[in-house]
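Q: Hi! First time doing this. I have a protein sequence and I read that you can turn it into a structure. Is that right? Here it is:
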Amino acid sequence: MGVRTLPLPRLVAGRDYADDMVSTLGTVVGQDVVVDATKLLSGTTSFAYQLIERLLAEEKANSVLLVGAPADFAEYATSAARELHVTDRFDLAEELPRAAAAS
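A: Yes, that's right. Below is the predicted 3D structure, encoded as structure tokens:
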């Protein structure tokens, strides 16, 4: 089981863009995914929902840790995790874990 890191740019919007970003990771089945949102300034509800749906519901990642996201985007992602019934595999953090920061 590995850890994959997905860095988000300053602006993210739309389901298609979320799909494209998740696709860059390749397969994440059984892996932990750190979504690095420390540079994110703004993101849409649709992007957040699709990101969580793809990673946890479709791709079956072991877990997703959303790091450093603006409050509104963190709420969008948390709401998506609730709606998709995957809150047990989703979490938020203020800073990158040391292992992810080093990679």
